[in-house]
Amino acid sequence: MTGTSRPVGAITRGTTGYNRLRRSDRWLVHSPRVRTALRAAADPLVVDLGYGALPVTTVELSSRLQTVRPDVRVVGLEIHPERVATAQALTDEQGAVRFALGGFELAGLRPVLVRAFNVLRQYPVEAVPDAWATMMRRLAPGGLIVDGTCDELGRRCCWVLLDADGPVSLTLACDPFNIEQPSDLAERLPKVLIHHNVAGRPIHTLLSAADRAWASAAGHGVFGPRVRWRAMVELLRAEGHPVAAPRRRLRDGVLTVPWSSVAPATH
After folding, report:
1. What angle is formed at CA 263 by the lines to CA 132 and CA 119, rounded to 5 degrees?
2. Which of 169, 178, 182, 222 holds its CA 20 to 30 A away from the CA of 193?
3. Best CA proximity match to 132, nearest among 192, 196, 54
4. pLDDT tier at 198, thresholds 50, 70, 90
5. Residues 77 and 140 placed together within one structural domain of the fold
6. Distance CA 90, CA 181 (A)
7. Is the pLDDT of residue 197 over 80?
């Protein structure tokens, strides 16, 4: 039952906006691993952790995931009681969505998918491992977590996909019309990586290689920045970077790599 224990975490700023998380939602809907997890789940329960002052992105997530699993249930969790009350008042008619008080302990729920966007960005980096571990312990079998960050309009986003064993992959996503070069996304790296974007570290190496490939693909820019982004990804793959092949019809600029290729060194 939700709300049976004190929420784990701290109150964050709560900024939100319509369609702010559309790029991560599109990725979730098309990700083979996420689709498999949702379709295989005995209970298609999804938690949207830290949805902010208004529940708009939680309702949007529910609508989008219904294209994968029509009976999906989404629970929005917030650590701030007033935000929960506001969400409940605004979404009384949303049968597939409900809201409750909760933090990283996920209010005792066992979801198959957790989306935690723009939450850990506001915590000290030392808090990330414990927050991840707390959520991972609550996952249903085969469950996944998305820990991400985006700008205010959702044009630049980065997120880590985790399963019950830890991080799986890192994804960078953007509106290619809104960047000068891929490293512009560095400011939106997840908390666990942002301080490691310095020369000699794996994430810096990836972003630098992407910038070089972006420059080399400048000739494709006559066909638009989306085509140029796709050419950049193919160049990175040709150079041996473990970048996932892009989908054929790509609205967003997306670059996904295994976590092992960017993970910070542990000492």
Report:
1. 35
2. 178
3. 192
4. very high
5. yes
6. 40
7. yes
How much of the chain is in helix, strand and coil states, percent to nearest 5? 40, 20, 40
- Domain membership of residue 50 as a residue range: 22-174
Quote the tokens at residue 143.
């469950």
> Average of pLDDT values for 156-181?
97
Token output for 264: 């910070």
Tens of pLDDT, residues 217-248: 999 999 999 999 999 999 999 999 999 987 76
Strand partners, 163: 166
CA 249, chain centre distance (Å): 20
Residue 265 has pLDDT above 90, yes or no: no
- Same-domain pairing of 61 and 160: yes
Regarding pTM above 0.90, the answer is yes
First CA to last CA across the chain, in angstroms?
39
pLDDT, residue 88, reads 87
- Residues 120, 40 within the same domain: yes
Together in a domain, 121 and 239: no
Question: Encoding tokens for residue 85?
Answer: 């009350």
In the structure encoding, which two tokens stand for residue 169, read together? 């992959």
pLDDT in the model for residue 41: 96
User: Residue length, the chain?
Assistant: 267
SS3 176: helix
Asked which of 133, 151, 174 is the last residue of a domain, the reply is 174
pLDDT tens digits along 41-67: 999 999 999 998 889 999 999 999 999
Which pLDDT does position 1 carry in this prediction? Answer: 39
Say if CB 238 and CB 151 are below 8 A apart.
no
* Pure H helices in 16-151: 22-30, 32-40, 56-65, 81-90, 128-138
Q: Give the domain CATH number at 95.
A: 3.40.50.150
Q: Are residues 157 and 225 in the same domain?
A: no
